[in-house]
Amino acid sequence: MRELLELIAGPTVETLAMVSAAALAASALGAPVGLLLYLIAPGGLVERPALRRVLDRLINALRSFPFIILMIMLFPLSRLVVGTSIGTAAAVVPLAIAAAPFVARVVESSLAGVDRGVVDAAVAAGATKARIAFGVLLPEALPSLVSGLALTVINLIGYSAMAGAIGGGGLGDLAVRYGYHRFRLDVMAAAVVVILILVEGVQAAGDRISRRIMSMR
Amino acid sequence: MFHAGRPLKAASRDRSPFHTESDETVPFRSRQRLELRSLTKSFGGRPVVVDASLSVRPGSIHGVIGRSGAGKSTLLRMAALLETPDSGVALYGGVPVTGLSGSALLSARRRVGVVFQSFNLFSSRTAAGNVAFPLEAAGVRRGDIRERVVRLLDLVGLADKADQPVGRFSGGEKQRVAIARALANEPEILLCDEATSALDPETTRSVLDLIASIRDGLSLAVLMVTHQMEVARRVCDEVTVMDAGRVVETGPARTVFSSPSSEAGRRLVAEPAEAFRA
């Protein structure tokens, strides 16, 4: 049992670090794109139908890529950004790029859920588009954004396990090395249980924060 | 039950209710006329408003009545600069404001307060935060904002609920916050789009009394779109009847309700009162 705990502790930390860094990077890349998608949509504050179509297709193309193929394709980029294509740090690059389009869609749909009348009220008050976006739209959409972020992190935990299978480190790597190559089913089961706990924990935290924000309104 | 808020007349005939100690000489920008000239708007090739004109005197409430789909709300949205007309022009205080862009458009929008049917409050903000929003948008100093917000919420009888989230308010309270927010930038013109349609009869009366006291106290030009005849009867000084996107009749409320000259007006006046039916 002690050996199992020792075996699982390091990869768990690696997974947490990998997922956290990827979630942050994916949010930094995807959230502005999501906001832009909302603003330039037909009927939006800054309608740009042609740009919207291009972004739409780009996001759909990125989202339709199987992650494992995307990761292999992005080995050169990982090498360029973090100096290696193997390990936890290297896995953050494809993870972030795979999750960014998802974040963009989450942000776009969260903003689309904001009552159009609320936007009208802000426009009628003579607010600038930037103030409407950051002072009204994002705060109004916050509960939905938090739920979306939780969903992103959960997806990333799944992706990170896949990344582990091709040298990404973390729990996926542990499960493959011990469970698959050495027939240590107990280690594989333990890795799966930890992943389950992480997913449950993130989902519960997301729900709780989202509910808390709603209850304060 | 709601009270009508602080009486306005005595306090505001001579000086703005937004008066502050540090702002002694700034008058309330009132006594401006709203004019809509030959406004026309189509959506997807379907005409919604056709050649509609009306004029709202300062210190009066001008009702726009008509059935659903008559083009009333679109007319109001063009007056509020939320929609651009295909042709025609809106004038605030005699100055054309249609077709503006950039900071001129933002400034023009700040000269008008808009009250919506479904309140359209910011659920992420408290009552005070909602009222503060137009002031923040106008770049008012933070120190002045709080003082003005308290005065405005006092005006609508909600000063004691300033720091409460608006999600927990009743419909009448929400509409009062919306009215305070609409008045935040000391508008010359107040536009009310079915402002009482989502309220019960008693709250409707109370909100109408508040709007009437604002008209009297601040000499605003108030344009009130409604499909509730009793609402128009109760507070409007003048009434415009719209039918199929066109203005078919305009005149003093008493005349329109006692002897409507248009077929649409006669139909509307004959409708049973619903707004105040308990």
Q: How would you describe the overall organization of this protein?
A:
The complex is a heterodimer of chains A (217) and B (278). In chain A, helix 1 (2-39) crosses helix 9 and helix 8 (142-168) runs antiparallel to helix 10 (185-215). The model of chain A has no long low-confidence stretch (mean pLDDT 91). In chain A, 43% of the residues are buried. With 217 residues, chain A is an all-alpha fold. Chain A contains 10 helices and no strands. Chain A has a single domain, classed as MetI-like fold (Orthogonal Bundle). Chain B has 278 residues and is α/β, with parallel strands linked by helices. Chain B has a domain at 9-17 and 29-122 and 189-270: Rossmann fold, CATH 3.40.50. In chain B, a hairpin with a 2-residue loop joins strand 1 (34-43) and strand 2 (46-56). In chain B, helix 5 crosses helix 6. Chain B starts with 8 loop residues before the first helix and ends in an 8-residue tail after the last helix. The chains are: A mainly alpha (217), B alpha/beta (278). The A-B interface holds A 115, 117-118, 120-128, 131, 135-136, 139-140, 142, 216-217 and B 80-82, 106-110, 112, 114, 116, 118, 120-125, 133-134, 136-138, 165-167, 178, 181, 184-185.
